[in-house]
Design a protein that fits this description.
- By secondary structure, the protein is an all-alpha fold.
- It is about 80% helix and about 0% strand.
- α2 runs antiparallel to α3 and α3 packs antiparallel against α4.
- The protein is extended and about 80 Å long.
Length: about 210
């Protein structure tokens, strides 16, 4: 993941292609964090290649959308074989599949909207489980399109604004770190002084007849 982030940063002018491909690979359940790619994309668009901000945004939007289609297709086409595959058996145990399916029945489209905002592989579990449960692709595509648009726009816009003010925020972070370090140092010195004084008091009381 670190190599991908570094590679995208070094080739910022072509970042939209690398971002799009990375997101497609994430749909295959490769260890690529969609959240990291999203944040990196927004910061690059804001601070490195602002002239490509819309291009990068749409590469993220469609990359996330098609990534979900890939995960859905994996569940739809080989769903019956997944439990016997070591990786997928850990990622999608039967109880987890049943739980997500119950969310579909109870919350409908909100399962996708809320699920889009939950990291650590939850999204792909939702997409793959949709395929395993044979949810009609049209229903899946419409529901996730709404969820993907909501999530992508919200997160991209947030980190784009942060990226525009990166220097200011970084200065605040450095100031905050200095304050925290100073407070920590004073606390350590205070505790050390208190224990030293307490030890001397005990030693003097022991010497008193």
């Amino acid at each position: 993941m670190d190599n991908i982030v570094e590679f995208i940063s070094l080739h910022a002018s072509k970042a939209h292609w690398f971002i799009f491909i990375s997101l497609l690979l994430a749909g295959c359940n490769l260890p690529i964090s969609i959240d990291v790619v999203m944040i990196l994309s927004a910061v690059l668009a804001a601070s490195v290649v602002p002239e490509h901000k819309f291009l990068i945004y749409f590469s993220v939007l469609f990359g996330c959308q098609f990534s979900a289609w890939i995960a859905y297709s994996i569940g739809r086409l080989i769903g019956d074989k997944l439990p016997s595959m070591r990786f997928f058996s850990k990622l999608l145990p039967p109880k987890k599949i049943e739980k997500i399916q119950s969310f579909y029945a109870k919350y409908g489209i909100w399962t996708f909207v809320i699920g889009r905002f939950i990291p650590f592989g939850v999204r792909n579990c939702i997409f793959t489980t949709s395929g395993i449960s044979k949810m009609p692709f049209r229903v899946f595509a419409i529901r996730d399109a709404v969820a993907c648009l909501t999530w992508t726009t919200t997160v991209f816009s947030t980190f784009y604004l942060i990226g525009q003010n990166f220097d200011t925020l970084w200065n605040h972070v450095k100031t905050f770190n200095i304050i925290i370090f100073s407070a920590f140092s004073v606390t350590v010195i205070g505790v050390f002084w208190y224990k030293l004084k307490k030890r001397k008091r005990l030693e003097s009381s022991d010497k008193t007849p």
